Amino acid sequence: MKVIDLRSDTVTHPTKSMLDAMASAELGDEGFADDPTVNLLQEKVADMMGKEAALFMPSGTMANLSAILTHCERGDEIILGDLSHIYVYEYGAASSLGGIIYKPLANADNGTLDMNSVYEATKKLSARFPNTALVCLENTHNRCSGAVLPQEYVRSVSDVSHNNGTAVHLDGARIFNAAIAQNLPPKELVSTVDSAMFCFSKGLSCPVGSILLGTKDFIAKAKVMRNTLGGGMRQVGILAAAALVALEEMIDRLSEDHHNARLLSDGLRNLEHVRVQSDVIETNIVIFEIPERDTQELLSLFGDRGLMVSNPYGDKIRMVTHYGISEQDIYDALSVVKSVVESN
Ligand SMILES: Cc1ncc(COP(=O)(O)O)c(C=O)c1O
Fold this sequence. Notes:
CATH class of the largest domain: Alpha Beta
Number of strands: 12
Order of helices and strands: EHHEHEHHEHEHEHHEEHHHEEHEEH
Number of helices: 14
Largest sheet: 7 strands, mixed
Structural class: alpha/beta
CATH architecture of the largest domain: 3-Layer(aba) Sandwich
Strand content: 15-25%
Radius of gyration: 20 Å
Shape: globular
Bound molecules: pyridoxal-5'-phosphate
């Protein structure tokens, strides 16, 4: 039976050209900063994103955590969305490991935080209150159906936060999806934030790897933090080689994933009983529910028919389009959902 795996864009495998590049990568010891392929990747990404420096990371979670711990002192407070990946899925690591206080604000359906609330939350009151050191944004927003943050909004949050003496970090795990969806150069999406991270291991199909961006000084401190967390690596040019291929070959094709996600959401909307979370699908994530049906049973009925999906929270079902998923796969996935819905 053919399996269509829409659980996440992290299920992708490296492409043939990535494997070839990995096999022939020039390697050194990243611990001594002499892995030429890692150094090349870091320089290339910093240049392409218009930031002073970049640091290769094992994962997005470690990149976010290293960034927060670099921006903040113990006892500082960070502002973030109540649906953000950092708040919901990263184990409260900045709190448990770094003594950081999380102050979540409500995420609107489009992934934004209310501007006035950001202003109020970052306003310095008196020494009786914790120091609000950082605002974290997420673009695209995973739990908000891959919503793209409007660039004007990112700029306004940055301005308000900076005026209040607070830095801004962008969790841009899927930054290229946001760039392609808005037809903007990726560097524009990070131009107003102090630090940003993105992942190679999601829509770009690399097996492992994320990268953190910021000033030279920030990245030097973040490197100490990453290594403190056990994220120092050795002949990791083998992974950086795949990332370099991803930058050349995997960005422009993300529009196919967005097209397929729209096909999927349009098809789901046409099915009785199915409720799609978001009216507009901007990138590659579709979240829906089928009220009055047991979600775990639905997952298992889909699975029996070769369709793999995820259950990110509550009764929500999530499908993510990615490299290797064709338009025909979308029609086949919709047939599976239709047959299960009608089988009730
Ligand atoms: C928005 C967002 N940020 C961060 C991460 C964490 O990345 P990683 O799985 O590489 O730790 C993810 C993972 O799915 C994500 O979706």
